[in-house]
Amino acid sequence: MKAAVLHTLGDRPRYAEVPEPAPGDGQVVVDVTACPLTNLDRVLAAGTHFASPSALPAVCGSLAAGRLPGGARVLFRSPDGAMAERALTRPELCTPIPDGVDDDAAAAIQNPGVSTWAALEWRARMRPGEHVLVLGATGVAGQIAVQLARHLGAGRVVGAGRNPRVLAALPGMGADATIRVDQRDEALGAAFRAEADTAGFDVVIDFLWGRPTEVLLGALGRADMELRSLRTRLVQVGAMAGGQVTLSAEVLRSSGVEICGFGTGNAPPPAELARLRDGVLALLAGGILGIGLHRVPLAEVAEVWNADERGVRTVLIP
Questions:
Q1: Strands 86-89 and 94-96
Q2: Domains plus CATH for the chain?
Q3: Which of 21, 137, 249, 295 has CB atoms 3.0–4.6 Å from 161's, for a disulfide?
Q4: pLDDT tier for residue 254 given thresholds of 50, 70 and 90
Q5: CA quadruple 244, 250, 251, 256: dihedral sign
Q6: Comparing 72-76, 202-206, 303-307, which segment has the lowest mean pLDDT?
Q7: Mean pLDDT, the chain, as a whole number?
Q8: CA 158 to chain centre
Q9: Which residue has better confidence, 168 or 43?
Q10: CA dist 70 → 26, 83, 85 (Å)
Q11: What is the DSSP secondary-structure string of the chain?
């Protein structure tokens, strides 16, 4: 069978022939119908993640949609690689796909949907009526964050990002205002202050870090920012704009900003993740959540591996 096979860390996987999967005790073979290409997949293949494969060659991907031997449609995880025509999994690693939801959309939305919902609810403790700023709102997860914040009852949602096409679409997803982050620092800081106004931001979901976050923190820490909101819970989720920020101690003392991270080291317990996953799929089935897709044949995996997705999620179709 064919699969996306990584031969060297730091290189792109290639479409290549591999042996058919042989199930062991408690395992089943799934016919794969859709496999999302995620940032985690890229980092693992680059060799910069603690879980990067140590034995090569290796089949890439860990999450996909497919059909069980009896025909049931499921989302599943495969420790042996999911970017293939067929993959191994266990029944306990499978989740039914609701009627009315396409396999490719279900596969694409699970990771960004669950992680974003957990960041809002589990880490930020967002409450109805609060004001939410999404940094990196034009990315796949950022767009979902805007939609979920609105669904969870945010009183005001502001989306900040770079892609003008997606920024223009954010109001239709629930954003009350948008900010372009690719402007000069002074103008960007002024835009943050204008949208914060006197109420401030109760919650910031940050997919960017780097310079945009520095500018935001500097804006919130200015002496002339008299905010009614004394607490701004900034949840650091991604670092698309850089892995470092320069943070003045004065900002933390003068702004009421509280910074925490969200990732594999502080994720909710499995039962909570399962609840969020089921919730994401239900919202997708109900048309409340949506995700832009770029469907690509698995045979073209090398060509699209490093492509700029520009606000849509690439889904590989075997």
A1: unpaired
A2: 2-97+288-316 (3.90.180.10), 112-261 (3.90.180.10)
A3: 137
A4: confident
A5: positive
A6: 303-307
A7: 94
A8: 18
A9: 168
A10: 16, 21, 17
A11: -EEEEE-STTSPPEEEE-PPP---TT-EEEEEEEEE--HHHHHHHHT-STT--SSSSEE--SEEEEE-TT--EEEEE-TT--SBSEEEE-GGGEEEPPTT--HHHHHHHHHHHHHHHHIIIIIS---TT-EEEEETTTSHHHHHHHHHHHHTT-SEEEEEES-HHHHHHGGGGT-SEEEESSS-HHHHHHHHHHHHTTT--SEEEES--HHHHHHHHHHHT-TT---S---EEEEE---TT-S-----HHHHHHH-EEEEE-SGGGPPPHHHHHHHHHHHHHHHHTTSS---EEEEEGGGHHHHTT---TTSEEEEE-
Q: 0.85 cut: is pTM over it? A: yes
Query: What is the residue type of 195?
Result: E
Amino acid at 28: V
